[in-house]
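Q: We require from you a single protein entry containing the residue sequence and its fold in token form, and nothing else.
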Amino acid sequence: MINLNALIQLKPYFSKRTVTILLVAFVFASCRQSENKTSIDEEIDVLELEQLPAVAHPIDNVSSSAKIALGRLLFWDPILSGHKDVACATCHHPDFAYTDALDLPIGVNGIGLGPLRSENASVLQLDSLIKRVPRNSPTVLNVAYNGLTSAGDYAPQAAPMFWDSRMLGLEAQCQGPPNSRSEMRGDA
């Protein structure tokens, strides 16, 4: 095996061309797969991973294509916010893994998306009572599986939501942010 540090230390003693050839050889040698190494598929098989179960729906709120379409529209529509300027997707955007890539989210009184979102200073002066949310926006990917046990059991209506599990089930969770003054100006 070639030692990269040894090659770098030899640089003053050889021409640039020689060092380049040695580095290219090093890269090719490093990229070769050893015969005694296992393939990635074999390594995954050892983990005995299983497919996620079908999503369970609350008995009193069975999924339908119409509900899915409505949910998709509402997720992107700021009409649920008090000033009609913040949607769920503002803080849970797919371009940022369904989060906003900020330490602390900027719900109302913000401009832009993701890490480029900033507080709108002119609006903040008018309404300085609105504080930023004191925790980051978690991803919403796979939240339908919150509460899933290692045995594959879960009750969607009892699934813990938010960082502190203060709400149980997606139906209860989705009512939180629209009612929050700092997230979606629910008091308006």
